[in-house]
Structures are given as C-alpha cells and as structure tokens.
Amino acid sequence: MQLVIDQLTGLILCTFFGVGRTHDFRLFKASQVRFAQSQMCLADKGYQGLDKRHAHSCTPFKKRRKQKLTLEERAHNRSLAQLRVVVEHANRRLKIFRILSERYRNRRKRFGLRVNLIAGLLNYELSLKS
C-alpha cells in the first residue's frame, strides 16, 4: 500500500494498493502519482531510485557492503527521519483500525474502499483538531 501525505497537516491525500506482495517502488511506478516540480518528496529506503524520476526527492542513504555510513550520511538520515515522522504517525492511525495491522479476510475488491473511508474519517478528525 502506498500513501501520499501532506507534510504540514498530516492529511492523507492519496492511497494506492497492489495485489499481493509488491515492492514499494514498483507500486509507486504503477500508481502513476506525479508530483509538481517544486514539491519535495520524502520517501523511505524502499524508494531508492526515485531521484531519477523526481528531482526534488529525498531518500535515506543505505549502508554499503562492509562499510559504515559517514557522519554526514547519518546526520542526513536522522534529519529525514524527523521529517518523515508525520508519515509514520499516519500509518499508526491506520493500524489502530486494524485494517493494515492484521490479515484482511474480507472481499479484496472492497479493501481500497474501506481504507479510503478510514482515511476520510482520520482526515475529518484532524480537520476538527485544527
């Protein structure tokens, strides 16, 4: 599952689902989600290579074989993780409804609809707080 979340408000803007187990970057390519050139895209390690598709993307550095990350790379990864905490909080809010935390045993066709409904409820709850 792929989520697009607004960094400032924490609202879930877009969701996309694959059938079965699908790699994050393959799911991103299939979703056809496009960002404006001025938008910054913060992603996790599953989206290595995103910088070739979007100039203003930022992914953490991966450790090379038998080498450690430099201090600058570690500082970059830490600052990126501090920015991405908004996304992780959105994942947590979806897992509270147990739609993502457990095996989904209902009709597969309705999974996307149910996740979008829960995302709408969470967005409504966030809009009431602000």
Strand order of the largest sheet: 1-2
Strand runs, count: 4
Mean pLDDT: 88
- Unreliable segments of 5+ consecutive residues: none
How does the SSE layout of this entry go?
Layout: E1 2-5, E2 12-16, H1 24-31, E3 41-42, E4 57-58, H2 71-96, H3 111-129
Parallel strand pairs: 3-4
Antiparallel strand pairs: 1-2
Walk me through what this model shows.
With 130 residues, this protein is mainly alpha-helical. It has one domain (2-129). It contains three helices and four strands, in the order E-E-H-E-E-H-H. The strands form two sheets. It has a two-stranded antiparallel sheet with strand order 1-2. A two-stranded parallel ribbon has the order 3-4. A hairpin with a 6-residue loop joins strand 1 and strand 2. The longest helix is centred in the middle third of the chain and has 26 residues, at 71-96. The two termini are 27 Å apart. The model has no long low-confidence stretch (mean pLDDT 88).
